[in-house]
Amino acid sequence: MNVWVKTICRVLVALMIWTPYQIATAGMIGTVQVVTPSAQADRTTVLNFLTRSDVRSQLHSLGVDPSNANDRVAAMSDQEVQQLAGRINALPAGADVSWGAILLIILIAAAVWWFWQR
Q1: Quick count: other Cβ atoms within 10 Å of Cβ 85?
Q2: pLDDT, tens digit, for every residue of 10-34?
Q3: How far, in Å, CA of 74 to CA of 83, rounded?
Q4: CA distances from residue 81 to 70, 84, 117 in whole angstroms, order as listed
Q5: Which alpha helices (H) appear in 1-118, and where do they start and end?
């Protein structure tokens, strides 16, 4: 068994020496490469938000044609789109939990505990 351990160790050392190392390179990037994708990503965020069915129905109930809303987004400046995308990203992901829902959960938990102890 000692021979096998020595052989495996020698093979591992040889593989470590033989395997080439990755060389990382760094370089400067221009402002155009950084700013343009961000503005386009924000515009895509706003347009994706407008394609959701609940947003479309809300726009329709307010009397705004969804295609007209897309045209308005296309006419917005990058700063306006960035601000709107920031507000969209700051929205809560789930529904707003009211105190009634929390109270209902507590009452159900208390009832389950009461029946369990009985």
Answers
A1: 21
A2: 888 888 887 766 666 778 888 777 7
A3: 14
A4: 12, 5, 57
A5: 2-18, 31-50, 53-61, 66-75, 78-89, 99-117
